[in-house]
Write a structure and sequence with these properties.
Strands 1-2-3-4 form a four-stranded antiparallel β-sheet. It has a two-stranded antiparallel ribbon with strand order 5-6. It has a two-stranded antiparallel sheet with strand order 7-8. By secondary structure, it is α+β, with helices and mostly antiparallel strands. 50% of the residues lie in helices and 16% in strands.
Length: 250
Amino acid sequence: MQLIFDRRITRRTPGRFRTRVLTAGVVPSLHVDYKHSRIKQYHKEGRALRTETTINDTRDFAIGRGLTNLSALRKVGFHANRRLLDVQRLSQDCAIGEAAVDRIHRPLVVDGQRAAALRFLDPRVLALFCALVVFRLLPAGFTARDLRQHVAPLLGLAPAALPAGRVTYDLRRLRLHGLIERQPQRHRYRVTDAGLRVALLVPRLWARTLRPGLATIMPDQAPNDSRLRHAFRRLEHAMDDWCAHAKLAA
């Protein structure tokens, strides 16, 4: 309620506060009750998501009942609708992100073909992602030979030291995971939109966040006075104190 109506609510706040989702025998709908006001959300004729806010008592929002306050009430209703949609979008983004991780980071089966996982922190996978960024710029696409020429140096190998079977295996993984697609009747590939976005995100996340962050917090690394190291040290002390108190209480 606080997220949607932007009002502070405690146990002493009078009124009725509840959220209901109706699904049995009707068009699924969401009902949010805040004191004397209500938000109803449902699919209008199965085509659009409709959100209706009804304010039955202006005093719920410390607004008078005169017509001069109509614009203020309209603003309250509009902001409540917008915050509800924002909360739903954020919660749905978690599910979408989890599905994207499952689709790339874990093994999958496509049309009876099994594709091994593309582990984000695997050096070989990071090298593949870095190569995809370059290949996206090629209007004619790229071949298995192009992939070998770009990936081998990133792994510290000469192109001739990278077996053809290994390159074919990587091409198959990238294709089944939807990061590249094969051009019709040709042995050339192009990077998909999803492939470009993953290739841009994951290597940078590793190089700019995970790797320097791990180097900062690991206790066996060179000592430093960073805020992150101090925060982890305080966390460790707090956990040790809590465990000690728990043992004493037991």
